[in-house]
Amino acid sequence: MAALGMLAVPCVLLGTGGAARAIGSLGLLQNDLLADISAIATEVLANVQTVKANAAEDMEVQRYSACQDASLRVLREGVIAESFFKQAKQMLLLTTDLGLLAFGMRSVVKGNLTIGRFMSFRSYLRKFYLALDALTDIYKDTRFSLTASKRYFDLIDRKPTVVSKKLQQETQKPTGGGPPESQGALQGPPDQAEGRQGEARGPALVEFRNVSFAYAPTSAAATAAAAAATGDGKAEAGGSLGGPQILKNLSLRVPRGEVLALVGPSGAGKSTLVKLAQRFYDPQVGKQMQHEQQQQREQQQHQKQQQHEPQQPQQLPQQYQPPTCEPLPAALPAS
To answer: Where in the chain is the domain with CATH 1.20.1560.10?
Structure first.
């Protein structure tokens, strides 16, 4: 009788492990989709004038609706999976209890067992089932919490590719003549290549050599939802770069003193190129050069040597002091 009463326990434990993994995966996907929905709404509302100026309301509504529909589908699947798990567990325990009741009453009728001992055993076993039911629910919730916390700590432990350290104080100052030391980019010999009108061009202030760049990919569900919303699915994938490729084998050289205008349709990568020049990102492929040498300065030090005027100024609750743009020394030592 004890073996019959414990027959459902291994099945319940195995089912709990599988259900916890499935429900946890759906819960994480649901969190990712909710984050994508919030990101789309925040981005559109913060730039509503730009969206309306480009008549992109329908496109943004399609993006938002696609992510929202995907979130509802995942939520429905999660509710169905959790309900099925609970009902299947209850059915298994009740079926075992019913079989135990039939076996016990048969033993009582035959005289092999007294009614008091049988009812006591069944009462203790039902309390054990109630505790087992509560423990499986706790395990399922704990498993989901651990999975979600793993994603959280993965985000915390990510190491940025563009490291912004504190400005290192000058530890060695020249006591005699000669140029002061600097940790900035290296300035190479002047380039005497002729320009478009045949004039001698100076050293390149900014140069991109065969640069390819792609932003970090979003979640798979959001990417699939966006592709379904556009209806074409022909966006060029970034391959090993990650997300959709923005820049591909771009080479650009801007000499000192030259004014350059970037002209192209929306989404061509103009703003991305400016962000690369400001070192908000580093290219995955190719080199970003300054003063004929690959960029080696730290991000904060690099941005303090630049001035920029945004196309659409933003109102902020605090005031930022513009960078001083201190002139670079005429000759910089090699690192």
So the answer is: 2-157
Q: How far apart are CA 207 and CA 186, in angstroms?
A: 13
DSSP 246-312: EEEEEEEEEETT--------TTSSHHHHHHHHTTSS--SEEEEEETTEE--S-HHHHHTT-----SS
Measured CA to CA, the distance from residue 323 to residue 271 in angstroms comes to 20
Nearest to 250 by CA among 291, 275, 277, 287: 287
The residue count for the chain: 335
pTM check: above 0.85? no
Dihedral pair phi/psi, residue 246, rounded to 5°: -95, -50
CA max distance for the chain: 114
Locate 10 and state its tokens. 């291994």
CA distances from 203 to 50, 144, 195, 286 (A): 37, 57, 12, 19
Q: What is the spatial distance between Cα 15 and Cα 9, in angstroms, rounded to a whole number? A: 10
Contacts of 120 (CB under 8 A, 6+ apart): none
Task: Note whether 172 and 181 are within 8 A (CB).
Answer: yes
Q: Are 168 and 121 in contact (CB under 8 A)?
A: no
- What pLDDT, on a 0 to 100 scale, did the predictor assign at position 72? 92
275 CB-side CA count, 13 A: 14
Output the six-digit token pair for 17.
């492990």
- Cα angle 275, 279, 280; round to 5: 60
Query: What single-letter amino acid sits at 228?
Result: A
Fold for the domain defined by 2-157: ABC transporter transmembrane region fold (1.20.1560)
Question: Which residues make up the CATH 3.40.50.300 domain(s) of the chain?
Answer: 204-303
State the fold for domain 204-303: Rossmann fold (3.40.50)
Nearest C-alpha neighbor of 4 from the set 131, 125, 111, 124: 125
Q: Residues 134-189: pLDDT tens digits?
A: 888 888 888 888 877 887 788 788 776 666 555 444 444 444 444 444 333 333 33
Q: What stretch of H or E contains 206?
A: strand 204-214
